Amino acid sequence: MGMSITVHLSSEVSEALRAGRAVVALESTLITHGLPYPVNVETALAMEAAVRAGGAVPATIAVLGGKITVGLTRAQIEMLATRPAGSVRKCSRRDLPIAIARGEDGATTVAGTMIVAHMAGIRVFATGGIGGVHRGAPFDVSADLIELGRTPVAVVCSGAKSILDLPLTLEVLETQGVPVVGLGTETLPAFYSRSSGLPVDVLIQTAVEAAQIIAAAQRIGAKHGVLVTVPVPEQDAMPAEKMEVAIRRATAEAEENKIHGKAATPFLLARVAELTAGESRRANIALLVNNARTAAEIAVALATL
Ligand code: PSU
Ligand code: MN
Asked: Is the pLDDT of residue 48 over 70?
């Protein structure tokens, strides 16, 4: 039984891939576990529109009734976005076989989306922030980092949220052999804020340069991904110090309540959002849409190389 049997592509995505046109993968965990309704639907649709505006075809990925689905319809995105909290399985690498075997609905994380994108032949993926090493729990290393080390998909993001330990996150990426590219930035972005102060491996200025690095990795048969980091647009950025108070408090609460493993990230994201009221939301949406548009430009450049 081949892998193609288990991947269901929308006709638009499959035609684009067959024609060698630019396609950008989008994840679904940010819809079910990252953002509340109705911001989650609005943002998912705005990201798809931004990919189209950038000249590529969007492919939002999820598991629906046990079927790996690439290129969700608007109705499918709305269905995931309105499902009660906790009723959709958060699918990282280890969760995919469980959701498939049991015929469940599953939302793919960065790791889960990379796996499926690679199976479908999609080389570029846009999201907000990747998972990383948790603060105060250095053995809680997101499967996203390990996936970046073993799956050749480029992930366009604004770094990792500062709910994480960013220096340790960069160390793991180095160990995993993942190039960390700064598109218009010399330092790793810190999600809501433009800079973590930590250096990236290379500063580039254009989508074409990003495509050249992705293409070079492919030419040498690299088995790992490439992380292309893009800071949140200047006008939507938040001061890092403002976030820090909320993050410290949320992290302490997670510890008190013994929240670990896959529950940690959704808990921290929700708590930090509550503690900063609506302020962080604008930055979050702005960077997601900006990353989707940037990923489309990279995918277009990659398709024409
Ligand atoms: N970062 C965000 N929003 C999110 C996530 C990360 O700002 O929704 C999601 C992504 O899907 C990411 C996952 O892959 O959380 C990481 O979870 P964990 O730490 O359990 O690997
Ligand atoms: Mn985690």
From this structure: yes
